[in-house]
Amino acid sequence: MKRKAAVFTGPGKSFEVREFEVGAPGPGQVGLELISSGICGTDVHIHGGFLAMPSFPMVIGHEFIGRIDRLGEGATTDALGNALKPGAQAIACVAIPCGTCFNCRRGETASCLAFKVTYSQNVNDAPHFHGGFAEYLFSPAKNLVMLPEAVKPLAAAAFPCGGPTVIRSCAYGGGLELGELVVIQGNGSLGLFALAYAKAHGCHVIVIGSLANPERVELTRELGADDFLDFRKLSDDDIAKRVNDMAAKFNRGNGADVVIETSGAQNAFPLGVKLLRTRGRYFVPGQYSNRGPVDFEPQLVTFKALQIFGSGQYTMADIGTYLDFLAGKPELQDIFCRLVKTFRVDDANAAMADAESGRAIKAVFTAD
Q1: Side-chain half-sphere of 10: how many Cα atoms within 13 Å?
Q2: Domains (ranges, CATH) in the chain?
Q3: Measuring CA to CA, how many Å separate 357 from each of 92, 94, 192, 237, 352?
Q4: Tell me: the pLDDT tens digits for 245-277?
Q5: Tens of pLDDT along 223-241?
Q6: Which of 84, 132, 136, 209 has its CA at a distance of 20 to 30 angstroms from the CA of residue 184?
């Protein structure tokens, strides 16, 4: 049988939709039929040329959820020890920690010093289907996590990368506590998950974002934001005053307990630091490409004794935490399904255009 893949041939270039023969999975590999596969902000950065990639043609994408079609020799369990079987649904991770570097030996696989990705292979080399922008995927069994029966695949497709990344950043920063004041910079898909996650932990949440997409604003309201600040209409001083006023209202000190940067805008960083209370925590999973330097006041870190936590990757266990979170929140699953805009692999260029422009909160390839 043949399946289609949207092939990346270089920054700014149109994707080329090609068909390839689906072979048999190799030892330790699993073949999966597409259920859904999202376009992440990282994919947008790659397509825009902000993240360097090899020069050969390849299938990018790292948010593939599929139905197990075939199991290679020795592919018996997923990353968390669950038994694999044909017909079951699983989410695939593309990161391959080296297992031998200083961080990996300490169990810090999310910060591997030499990690690779499964899709960094020439699409012309069999078995061809290495990345997520395709109707089929070959994945190492150790890179899969089974979907619980209580989780709708389309709901999981909303944040298969963003959810675990936010969860990892929160874990680095000691978690979220009941009653904390959390400011989220950005109301894209990463920011919307951070909002849902913070509200589920009983936090008061201010979202700084844009009114450009009415659907996104409505979801921000529906997910329970306590206040919404339009960064285009308010100065940094106005935003800081609104944050301080809410901090005073809830007796949280001189600013936010936690700021989570999800916008990817470089100017968000110096503002985020200013919004924190003394001893506040800054989680930074959103700055995933080099958009240039910014002016920054480092003395604020010193005098306010701030804690800054970067998070660019996540662990397989974080995917399990994400899926368990969804399984326990059926009402959120219904909301998450609504923010997904679906495309066929044939329409990869339209999907990327909608993702880049923000017309789609979450652009996702599906088989139907």
Answers
A1: 3
A2: 2-160+314-366 (3.90.180.10), 163-310 (3.40.50.720)
A3: 26, 25, 17, 28, 8
A4: 999 999 999 999 999 999 988 899 999 999 999
A5: 999 999 999 999 999 999 9
A6: 132
Residue 230: how many other CB atoms lie within 10 Å: 15
Burial of 27 (0-12, 13-18, 19+ CB in 10 A): exposed
Rounded Cα gap, residues 289 and 306, in angstroms: 23
Among 83, 92, 168, which Cα is nearest to 134's?
92
pLDDT at 106: 95
Q: Contacts by 212-215 with C-beta closer than 8 Å and gap 24+?
A: 212/358, 213/358, 213/359, 213/361, 215/339, 215/361
* 114 neighbors 101 (Cβ within 8 angstroms): yes
* Token representation of residue 304: 């306010």
Please list, in sequence order, all residues whose beta carbon lies within 8 angstroms of the beta carbon of residue 218, skipping any fewer than 6 positions away: none
Token pair recorded at residue 30:
């699993």
Directed axis angle between helix 162-172 and helix 189-200, to 10°? 50
Whole-model pTM?
0.94
Cβ neighbours around 290 below 10 Å, total: 11
Query: Among residues 122, 118, 150, 120, which one has the least CA distance to residue 53?
Result: 120
Across the range 205-220, mean pLDDT stands at 91
Residues 6+ apart with CB under 8 A from 108: none
The first and second tokens of residue 256, run together, are 């936010």
- Partners of residue 67 on adjacent β-strands: 33, 89
Within the chain, residue ranges assigned H as helices are: 41-48, 102-105, 153-156, 162-172, 189-200, 214-222, 236-249, 268-275, 299-303, 316-327, 330-338, 348-357
**Cβ-based neighbours of 79, under 8 Å, separated by 6 or more:** 93, 142, 143, 144, 145, 316, 319
Question: Do residues 183 and 249 lie in contact, with contact meaning Cβ atoms separated by under 8 Å?
Answer: no
Cβ neighbours around 92 below 10 Å, total: 26
- Which residue do the tokens 């961080």 mark? 103
